[in-house]
Amino acid sequence: MAEIKGKIVRILSDREVVIDKGSANGVKYSMEFVIYEEADPVVDPKSREILARIDLVKNRVYVTHIQERICIAETAPSGLDTGSAIAQGGPVLSQEPDGKSLQPKLDVDPGEIMPPLDVSHRVKLGDKVRSVER
Q: In which domain, by residue range, is 20 found?
């Protein structure tokens, strides 16, 4: 499979982000993305040739929701076999018995968090539906 490169276009919480790639780009459920920043160039000391830039990995997230042009990805709970749990439609968020989340947080600027509008989860006549590939 070809590498899919994109960018974070919205931060929903300290555990969820929206990425600018979706089903039209080949994104699949449970796909892993690395959030990174490129460091300064690595230069060969003899030839002075730029060899590459090191990717400074900030975190890893896994796709839990896909639309045509975007997807939502979130951190995985500690100890979760992410690929199988998400692929089977299982919950990604989990908690310890004391109610603390096992899901690690992303180090985000709280001022950049823009959660979606509060939508009622009550199913009503006229709600939209769509099929989901598994």
A: 8-105
